């Protein structure tokens, strides 16, 4: 069943979207050769938590990370690891905020 959103629900969604945008921008500022996707995940987690949010991926069906980060041809929703970013890599970041 679809529940109609009230003004408080919509305001919460707006806050989550703004924090998600700011977190993505913060992670993007930290992308450089040599940084690992695990380190980028920590940047996102720390930023979100310092700003009163919680990563919505964290804990979902046992998932251990705040983000899903893919490099180059990796499938969307890549799992963070010790894999480092290289010059010229295409880095895809997916995250959600509660």
Brief digest:
By secondary structure, this protein is α+β, with helices and mostly antiparallel strands.
Task: Write up what this structure looks like.
This protein is of the alpha+beta class and 98 residues long. It has one domain (7-95). The chain has two helices and two strands. It has helices at residues 7-30, 37-50; strands at 67-71, 91-95. The protein has a two-stranded antiparallel ribbon with strand order 1-2. Helix 1 runs antiparallel to helix 2 (37-50). It is elongated. The chain starts with 6 loop residues before the first helix and ends with a strand. The relative contact order is 0.22. The model has no long low-confidence stretch (mean pLDDT 94).
Order of helices and strands: HHEE
Counting DSSP E segments of at least 2 residues, the number of strands comes to 2
List the uncertain runs.
none
Total individual domains: 1
Sheet with most strands: strand arrangement: 1-2
Rough outline = elongated
Beginning-to-end CA distance, first to last residue: 21 Å
Q: How many strands, which pairing sense, and closed or not: the largest β-sheet?
A: 2 strands, antiparallel
Mean pLDDT: 94
Rg for CA atoms: 15 Å
Structural class: alpha+beta
């Amino acid at each position: 069943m679809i529940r109609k959103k009230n003004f408080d629900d919509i305001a919460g969604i707006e806050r989550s979207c703004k924090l998600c945008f700011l977190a993505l921008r913060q992670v993007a500022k930290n992308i450089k050769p040599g940084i690992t996707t695990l380190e980028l995940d920590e940047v996102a987690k720390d930023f979100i938590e310092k700003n009163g949010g919680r990563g919505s991926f964290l804990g979902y069906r046992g998932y251990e990370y705040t983000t899903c980060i893919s490099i180059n041809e990796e499938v969307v929703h890549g799992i963070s690891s010790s894999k480092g970013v290289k010059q010229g890599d295409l880095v895809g970041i997916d995250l959600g905020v509660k």
